[in-house]
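Letters spell out the chain; backbone shape is given numerically. Both lines appear below:
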Amino acid sequence: MQIRSYTACKSDYEGVVSLATETQESIYITNNGNCTLIVKSEEAYEDRKLLMKHRAALLEAEFSHLNGDPTYTVDEVRAMLKQMYQNG
């Protein structure tokens, strides 16, 4: 976690951009000692977004399992796909 003041960010924008890009960490921008903004590089943001999408899919699968929806082994899925494509 990196913390920078608003004044430092304003006077050294390129430095903040470089820091975000190099460290891939969030940078907390403060104003009068209070965090007002969190900045990430685009790559770190996209990686985080993908991670959250995967976590959401896992949670959805877990809820389905807990609700009693059927689960299948890899072999069962292969057999279903094979049958589907043979009949398709």
Q: What stands out?
A: The radius of gyration is 23 Å. The chain has a mean pLDDT of 93. Helices lie at 6-11, 13-23, 42-66, 74-87.
